[in-house]
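[retry 2/3] Metallophosphoesterase: previous attempt timed out, resubmitting with same input.
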Amino acid sequence: MPQLIFGLTSLLILARFIWPLDWPLPAKIVAALLVLVALQFHRWNRLSSGSEFSPEFPRPVVVLFNWAFGAIMLLALLQLALDAGLLVAALVHGGIVGAPDGVRYALAALAATAAAIGVHQAMRIPPLKDVEVGIRGLPRQFDGYTILQLTDLHISRLFPAPWARAVVARANKLGVDLIAITGDLIDGTVDARRKDIEPLRDLVAADGVYVISGNHEYIFGYDGWMAHYAALGLRSLENRHVVLERGDGRLVIAGITDRASRRRGHPVRDLAAVLDGAPKGAPVILLDHQPSDARNAARLGVALQLSGHTHGGLILGIDRLAARANAGFVSGRYDVDGMTLYVNNGTALWPGFALRLGRPSELTRITLRAAGDA
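[retry 2/3] Metallophosphoesterase: success.
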């Protein structure tokens, strides 16, 4: 399907943008070749690493490819809008209506500028976002309890060790009670990312740093990565729960494997089994990389689910496509049958389409409040 989309995009740009320009044929051929090279970004990724999800080029090259790829995809959308306008004009005026080269140049400039802004927004150290969540039955000892959610770090050539170190420094300054990392920490093998992920060893929180898998851990060797996370001091919450106690107050933090486990021969997700043995009446906070199964979590009595995976849909407006693929959940807070679901836009995002417009990255500090106080 992606190759079909990229193929149709190529045809659209070649036939409706490049060919109508008043350029000599050699210039059109060069422009067409550049478009084709940029749109094969993921093919070049596979050649560099064996996986389209892990571009192993120098960082400036990865940045350039993301900008070019994003600019062309945005230009295709703008060209479709232009063609729709020309079609309406033709119907109104009863004849063929064309657009001067200047209009196409303006569209190209707009797409290139928007892509540059989008890549910059994607690569930055994310700002803090504060979210308060009211929870029924929250013990008074946990009123004001803070959880920092990190998710979709996608540590890679695009998000290397210096970026990870800056995120860790900003996270540690917050002094939260617990850090929850909800999957997709990496893109690449353990050997390729060992140095880049090392800064996560320095994450500190009073009640610990917990991690679950995302779908990308399964792409790059689930067992190896989960063992490496443990070596970094990140506590796995895969298919289990822990009980936090403050005096006679209890709070359950649970985690579950990603939906990708179903396809890759790993233990089947069973949230009921994960919650078995949890103290009755204690609120449950669930870490689940993908938000799609939120209604099942609500049915089983979870009070708050923290998810990621969607990257917020990347671009405002187009984000509705991501929502359709994730049971309608794409960004921010949702009330799901009485349970609060929070879908984080992501600390970073996949380096194969690193572009954000209107859906910013975030370091998310969740503050728990007894229901009625939020």
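[retry 2/3] Metallophosphoesterase: The chain has two domains: 2-123, 128-370.
[retry 2/3] clearing retry counter.
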